[in-house]
Design a protein that fits this description.
- The structure is a homodimer of 361-residue chains.
- In chain A, helix 9 runs antiparallel to helix 10.
- Chain A is built from twelve helices and 18 strands.
- In chain A, the strands form four sheets. A seven-stranded antiparallel beta sheet of chain A has the order 16-15-14-13-12-18-17.
- In chain A, strand 12 and strand 13 form a beta hairpin.
- The longest helix of chain A has 17 residues.
- By secondary structure, chain A is of the alpha+beta class.
- Chains A and B meet through helix 4, strand 8 and helix 7 of A and helix 4, strand 8 and helix 7 of B.
Chain lengths: 361, 361
């Protein structure tokens, strides 16, 4: 176990943005919250997966709802803390640590904030290895673990528990409706996991990975260098295209932001579909990357990730693909998070690990 | 404690219809369910309020959702039984008896069905003395008792618990959304009540009252007499008008059925507004009865109540008013169930206890 250093917080925010693959929102306000806690003398403690005891009990946390709302109502760990306490009361067992359901976007910070509040360490792991829009898209659900009980709380005095659910989709349906009614944002604590379950079915080392990616960006920024090549090397990724955003169509439906973005560069055209996160990339009409692999649009100047809700005409970008965790590309994984789960009529194909050499500096 | 006799079941159904004041649905299918249980040798046990021990624990039951759905999916006590068991697990206390949140309509039968299933007696009481459309309109909530926890279950394997709620309106909002997601119908178990609380804040004797009203109708039917006068005498009510339904406007909005019905007779016109239940009656434009008093439209031939969802042009009817329980007409009661709570811009006025003598036979 080690304390996360103050200077690592910014790296975590940048890395979580990259792993957010366009969704999950940039954790800018969460970063400010964490810094405020650090200024007050607190420190988030990071627990390596190999330090987990099999019978430890881990709270899996997330904000559930519309990311946009967290821009109006400042993020706070209180609602998630109350969801944790509700889960402890209902199951009559205390938690030993916390972790995030997804390392992508603002949920990367929630376990740090809650952990500092409740004095619990943060497991260096998540259940998505990125951001996904729905609760059943977590590795624990994909591996068939029970997805209940599931606790939600808000900043008033409301607490809802899905005590039992027919399956993971029902947890998502019932939880989503409760979160919407609570103001389109709720702090949630998913089914408690044992240390053994996290080690066997979690995506391990995600917090460190996000910090590492962010460090690469900060490092390159200090040297006035382009960080894309280093990100690709560190993440075993590929550059899909550098270019300019020339078209964005975006609509908010069924609680998600959906749409397409078109990027032109190097004489070619890259079209990317999104549902909260970027899902499919087509180069001159040919599919070159798709979910569950990570498609991330980076600002050409800052190398920070650009979200699907804010991407706009004229931005200069570099689009990269990073490989999904093997749990996500397993048959059960693809059933839940492959292209067909997002409504596309084709099977998953891994992106080609090419182009490292060809990255223009 | 006494067994409810087989022949009383039909009387209960008719009486619950009358006290349903147009909503809550006629409990025809629940009557069939209860008869099936009786045919299998079971008997519902009725516990008089004075038999309640102060420290007894009572489960307050209801189907929550759209009454229409219970006409497509046959009523069953299983979902409510699972809500009861969830509440027992969460609060770590067993129940000693069950009761209905509302005596009006099909919810009058739910505690009988659940009681026979779980071998628990049915308290001769409810929390509305009629039917009301929303959960916060119960006497326990009006008297300021905690309205959580609140448990819901469906016929699949889904169980939801409102562990805590800011206030009664939040229980209604969160419970309603969960019930809708569960298929627009859920078995619910409201906050556990002690025997002392039921005696102090419940509406006592409602099951007996419903059976008595139903008996009057059955009795008159056997003698080929008109039962309206006897109902008015037994219920301290007033005849508002006899006539013919000449217009109905009905729309389903926000999960409720709302509208107006116009009845013409004796040279006069009676307009009645409804939101699930009949709420305000105007005779030639003048308000003569309003919530929380009971406005019931009786079929002129059978003297059975006609629901707001099925009332139609051409029906011959007698419209009666029956007085609300004093809890409902207290200042706190009127705040929650008076005309303003239903969106009308006037204060409650009791209906005139007149017309007994003038009832045409």
């Amino acid at each position: 176990m080690r304390a996360i250093e103050l200077h690592e917080l910014e790296a975590l925010a940048i890395g979580a943005g990259i792993l957010g693959t366009g969704g999950g929102n940039h954790p800018h306000l969460e970063l400010l919250c964490a810094r405020a806690a650090y200024a007050a003398g607190k420190r988030a403690q990071l627990l390596a997966p190999e330090e987990l005891q099999d019978d430890m009990r881990i709270a899996v946390l997330a904000f559930m709802g519309a990311p946009l709302v967290t821009k109006e109502r400042l993020p706070e760990p209180i609602s998630a803390c109350r969801a944790v306490r509700l889960m402890e009361r209902h199951t009559e067992r205390k938690f030993d640590a916390v972790m995030s359901v997804e390392i992508g976007g603002e949920n990367a910070f929630l376990p740090l904030l809650v952990g500092m509040e409740l004095d619990l360490p943060v497991v260096d792991a998540d259940a998505m290895g990125r951001a996904f829009p729905e609760a059943q898209m977590a590795s624990f659900a994909i591996r068939g673990l029970d997805v209940y009980p599931f606790a939600l709380a808000d900043i008033r005095d409301n607490e809802v528990l899905i005590a039992k659910a027919e399956n993971a989709l029902w947890t998502e349906r019932l939880g989503r409706k409760a979160a919407i009614e609570l103001g389109s944002i709720a702090g949630t604590c998913a089914a408690p996991r044992s240390g053994a379950e996290v080690k066997a079915h979690g995506i391990l080392g995600s917090t460190s990975r996000a910090i590492r990616l962010g460090d690469i960006v900060l490092d390159a920024r200090r040297r006035h260098e382009d960080a894309v090549a280093a990100i690709l090397a560190a993440g075993d990724g590929a550059l899909l295209l550098r270019g300019k955003v020339i078209d964005v169509s975006r609509r908010t439906t069924d609680g998600f932001v959906r749409g397409k973005v078109r990027i032109a560069g190097e004489g070619r055209t890259l079209d990317i579909d999104f549902q909260n996160e970027f899902s499919v990339a087509r180069l001159d009409g040919e599919i070159i990357a798709c979910v569950p692999d990570l498609i991330t649009v980076l600002d050409a100047e800052t190398t920070e990730a650009i979200g699907t809700e804010v991407i706009r005409y004229g931005q200069r970008v570099a689009v990269v693909a990073l490989p999904a965790d093997p749990i996500m590309t397993s048959p059960e994984g693809l059933h839940t998070v492959g292209p067909r789960a997002f409504g596309f009529d084709f099977d998953y194909r891994p992106f080609a690990r090419r182009g490292h050499a060809g990255v223009p500096s």
